[in-house]
Backbone:
């Protein structure tokens, strides 16, 4: 049997994976800024999150073009093909997670300078933000190491983030009759929803890990049969 | 690149008594009636096939079924035994000095290495298209197509009609119908290969073996042959040896991967190129060696 071949292709695929997974690092940076801006009502920082989303969009285009080039010129098959197909999904999720950060950042100016906050709701949001960030980091580690168990563990964290999302909704319903407070609480429902979606996207990245390793695509959890809570 | 094969064919090391194939097969071939498209194709089965060049063991215990009316691609690195294996299917292998084959090759229920089987009839029933187009240089286009028929007897056969049918089936009729008497060697490479396919079809085989039929052709001619293969599988069982992985992916229903004379994996083509079971198949199709 001859030695390894296709060095150029192997390097190009590895580089493409690095750029796509590097997009998850950009999401982490954006999410950290978003949560900080939310905590301190920092409108300037929120503006930076919105502007910097161009970097994530650019990364999406770069990886997408790289994938097209690789498919057209190298005709990858088997594990290589699955990796390329998975990266196409991963970079889409990266772009969507960036958009969720933008969605949150756009809500920050709407809450006013000193909104009538609920400490209870803020604690829930803070916890959700930490969990979402952890999920993004873990999804990247799982993909890099092709660790299906680590990818499947994302579901455990996602269940917690889903529970907190429902908790936030319940707290918002009970916030009282003050119209400013109710408006703020509704914004927080939208923030919680965006964080919950980031968690879902991280799980989706995990599902791609399982696809690359096993060749079979399966949803880790069936979103259409989530128990009411 | 093709698998190494010793040079000029000479005598066989296999016994070659030459009675006819069973009457049911010959009756159809001799009838002269045009063969109509039929899903009732013929299956080729290899059971523990071993092939040797003197002491060199080049095909090792291959057991493989070629399903009727399907295209099966054989892939593998140079020298892995794929061409030798295919040549065992129509008893071409034994024409090489010192070459021999062991095991079973069955065409439906017929053991083609059986003592009472006519080798010529086997090769008529299992036609072969080679890597390099090989029209008979001194013959006209129609003469080339009719060559096989003339050798096997033309009584009761309308030669002109059979030539036209074969050329139409090979997708060449519209390009040559007004110059059937011109030399076959005057055609382009792609046309010559389709002419050779027409020559193979003309004798109405049951199985067509193709040994890298497009390796000497340009991309357009290659695509035409691939479209033709897709048409032909409605009537014939087709086995194609190819080094072009994308070609295997495009034309084959199933793909077999060979390495060092052994059959490593045989599965639906889609599976071989997305989720192969054996790591050696994975390494080969992804170009990690070969």
Residues:
């Amino acid at each position: 049997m001859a030695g390894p071949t296709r060095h150029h292709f192997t390097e190009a695929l590895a580089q493409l994976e690095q750029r796509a997974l590097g997009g998850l690092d950009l999401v982490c940076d954006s999410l950290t800024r978003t949560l900080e801006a939310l905590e301190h009502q920092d409108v300037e920082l929120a503006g930076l999150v919105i502007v910097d989303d161009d970097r994530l969009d650019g990364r999406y285009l770069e990886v997408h073009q790289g994938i097209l080039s690789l498919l057209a010129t190298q005709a990858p098959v088997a594990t290589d093909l699955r990796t390329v197909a998975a990266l196409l999904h991963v970079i889409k999720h990266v772009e969507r997670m960036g958009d969720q950060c933008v969605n949150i950042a756009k809500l920050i100016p709407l809450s006013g300078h000193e909104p009538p906050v609920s400490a209870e709701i803020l604690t829930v949001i803070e916890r959700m933000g930490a969990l979402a960030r952890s999920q993004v980091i873990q999804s990247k580690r799982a993909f890099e190491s092709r660790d299906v168990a680590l990818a499947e563990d994302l579901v455990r964290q996602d269940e917690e983030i889903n529970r907190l999302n429902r908790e936030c909704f319940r707290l918002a319903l009970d916030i009282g009759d003050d119209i400013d407070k109710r408006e703020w609480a509704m914004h927080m429902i939208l923030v919680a929803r965006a964080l919950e979606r980031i968690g879902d996207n991280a799980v989706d990245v995990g599902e791609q890990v399982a696809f690359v390793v096993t060749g079979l695509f399966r949803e880790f959890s069936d979103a259409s049969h989530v128990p009411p809570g | 690149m093709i698998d190494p094969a010793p040079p000029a064919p000479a005598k066989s090391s296999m016994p070659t008594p030459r009675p006819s194939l069973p009457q049911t097969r010959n009756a159809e071939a001799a009838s002269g009636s045009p063969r109509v498209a039929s899903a009732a194709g013929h299956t080729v089965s290899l059971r523990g096939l071993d092939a040797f060049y003197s002491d060199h063991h080049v095909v090792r215990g291959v057991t493989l079924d070629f399903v009727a009316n399907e295209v099966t691609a054989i892939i593998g690195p140079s020298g892995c035994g794929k061409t030798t294996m295919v040549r065992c299917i129509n008893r071409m292998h034994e024409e090489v000095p010192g070459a021999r084959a062991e095991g079973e090759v069955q065409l439906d229920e017929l053991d083609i290495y059986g003592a009472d089987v006519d080798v010529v009839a086997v090769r008529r029933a299992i036609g072969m298209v080679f890597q390099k187009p090989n029209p008979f240089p001194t013959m006209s286009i129609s003469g080339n197509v009719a060559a096989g028929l003339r050798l096997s007897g033309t009584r009761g056969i309308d030669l002109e009609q059979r030539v036209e049918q074969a050329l139409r089936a090979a997708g060449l009729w519209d390009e040559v119908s007004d110059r059937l008497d011109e030399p076959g060697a005057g055609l382009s490479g792609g046309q010559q290969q389709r002419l050779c396919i027409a020559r193979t079809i003309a004798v109405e085989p049951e199985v067509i073996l193709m040994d890298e039929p497009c390796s000497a052709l340009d991309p357009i001619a290659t695509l035409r042959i691939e479209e033709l293969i897709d048409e032909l599988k409605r009537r014939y069982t087709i086995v194609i040896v190819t080094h072009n992985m994308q070609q295997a992916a495009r034309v084959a229903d199933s793909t077999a991967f060979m390495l060092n004379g052994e059959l490593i994996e045989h599965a639906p083509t889609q599976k071989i190129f997305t989720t192969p079971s054996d790591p050696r198949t994975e390494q080969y199709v992804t170009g990690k060696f070969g």
Observations:
- Chain B touches chain A at residues 77, 245-246, 249, 259, 273-276, 281-282, 285-290 (CB under 8 Å).
- The longest helix of chain B spans residues 189-202.
